[in-house]
Design brief:
Blueprint: E1 5-8, H1 18-28, H2 32-44, H3 52-56, H4 74-83, E2 87-90, H5 97-102, E3 108-109, H6 112-115, H7 122-132, E4 139-143, H8 146-155, E5 159-163, H9 166-171, E6 179-181
Parallel strand pairs: 1-2, 1-4, 2-3, 4-5, 5-6
Helix pairs in contact: 1-2
């Protein structure tokens, strides 16, 4: 079956989280290096990055992204895919506010917070199919994490595309069934 839709994870797939984590460290009153070290340790042990805040003994600061946080290849990729006739969406384990950042650039946008379903739950990927009214084999899900994005997308019957960027993108090795890219400029050719 030919791919008809591309759905993107947001953080470290479309949006570079570097400045967000710097702002979070400043708001929490901890050095960036300390925060990143704790998050790296959590990632290495398979734990959720939100556990960093109690470890550091601080409240979870708000996480925000803005226009300057998009990766340089992100918006051009979204536009090119739509111009080429693909349906394009963005949904990740994000707060509702992220939907407003993404809405101008995609045909479908959602957030795990609004759905109340978080990756890697199978229901998350079923919801994507329901929203697009497409069979899973017609959807490619693009993400930086194997555990949250690529593996569960493949298990749901989608094409899993692993982008190698961000800490998890470099830390994780995708399964053989996944397509690996290093830049969004490589889509859709890598999939088709």
């Amino acid at each position: 079956m030919a791919i008809e839709a591309f759905v993107f994870d947001v953080g470290e797939t479309l949006v570079d989280e570097t400045k967000m984590w710097e702002r979070a460290a400043a708001a929490a009153g901890v050095p960036v290096f300390t925060l990143m070290g704790v998050i790296g340790g959590l990632a290495a042990t398979g734990r959720h990055h939100d556990e960093a805040w109690p470890i550091l003994g601080v409240e979870h600061p708000p996480s925000t992204w803005g226009m300057t946080d998009f990766y340089p290849d992100a918006l051009a990729c979204l536009e090119r895919l739509q111009t080429d006739g693909f349906r394009v969406g963005a949904v990740g384990n994000t707060p509702r506010e992220t939907e407003e950042l993404m809405r101008p650039y995609v045909q479908f946008v959602a957030s795990a917070a609004r759905w109340g379903i978080y990756k890697p739950a199978p229901e998350f990927f079923e919801r994507i199919c329901d929203e697009f009214v497409l069979a899973p084999d017609k959807i490619a899900y693009v993400g930086d994490r194997v555990d949250n994005d690529v593996g569960p997308a493949i298990a749901a019957g989608m094409t899993g595309v692993h982008i190698r960027r961000g800490p998890w993108g470099h830390f994780h090795d995708p399964p053989a069934a996944a397509i690996r890219i290093h830049s969004l400029d490589e889509l859709p050719e890598a999939v088709t």
